Amino acid sequence: MIDFNECVKKGLLKRVPASREKALQSIKKSKQLFEEAKINFKDDRINSVVIVAYLALFHAARALLFRDGFREKSHECIIRYLEEKYPEIKSEEIELLEKYKAERTHTQYDVSYNPNEEQAEKMLAFTKKFIETIEEIV
C-alpha cells in the first residue's frame, strides 16, 4: 500500500491553487451522484448503485483536496490524503472508503462479481453520512 509521502513524491498528489469554489462544486456533484445511486437502488440496479455511490464518495473526498490546494491522480492517494490530513475522519470511515473503492472495482471489472442488495444499502447509508461529514469540514 502506498503512503501519503509516496503519493506526493510520485506526483499522484500535486499542489494546485486552493479553491473553496471547486470544493463546493465537488460536494454538489457528490450529492447529485448520491441521489442517482438512491434511484438506482429503488430500481434494483445494484451494480449501478455501487459504482455511482462510490463516485459520490470520491467527489466528496476530493472536495477537501480542492479546498486545501491539491489535485489527485490516484483514488488510493485521496484516501491516504484524508488519513494524513484529517484526523477527524475516523479510521473506521477510512477503512470503509477503502472497502467501497474495492467494491466498486470488483463490480466494474470482475465479470463474475455481483454485489447484493444489503451491501448496496450499507454503502448508501455510509455515503450519506460521509458526504455530510465532508460538507461540515468544508
Q: Stretches where pLDDT falls below 50 for ≥5 residues?
A: none
Please give the number of β-strands: 2
Strand order in the sheet with the most strands: 1-2
If classified by CATH, what would the architecture be? Answer: Up-down Bundle
Q: Which class of secondary structure composition applies to the elements?
A: mainly alpha
Classified in CATH, the superfamily is Nucleotidyltransferases  domain 2
Task: Describe the oligomeric state of these chains in a short phrase.
Answer: single chain
How many domains is the backbone divided into? 1
CATH class category name: Mainly Alpha
CATH topology: Four Helix Bundle (Hemerythrin (Met), subunit A)
Helices and strands, in order, run as: HEHHEHHH
Largest sheet: 2 strands, antiparallel
Percent of residues in beta strands: under 5%
Head-to-tail CA distance between termini = 28 Å
Task: Please describe what this structure looks like.
- Helices cover 75% and strands 4% of the residues.
- Strands 1-2 form a two-stranded antiparallel ribbon.
- The protein has helices at residues 4-9, 20-42, 46-68, 75-85, 91-109, 117-137; strands at residues 13-15, 70-72.
- It has 138 residues and is mainly alpha-helical.
- The protein has one domain (4-137): Nucleotidyltransferases  domain 2 (Four Helix Bundle (Hemerythrin (Met), subunit A)), CATH 1.20.120.330.
What is the element layout, followed by pairings?
Elements: H1 4-9, E1 13-15, H2 20-42, H3 46-68, E2 70-72, H4 75-85, H5 91-109, H6 117-137
Antiparallel strand pairs: 1-2
Helix pairs in contact: 2-3, 2-6, 3-4, 3-5, 3-6, 4-5
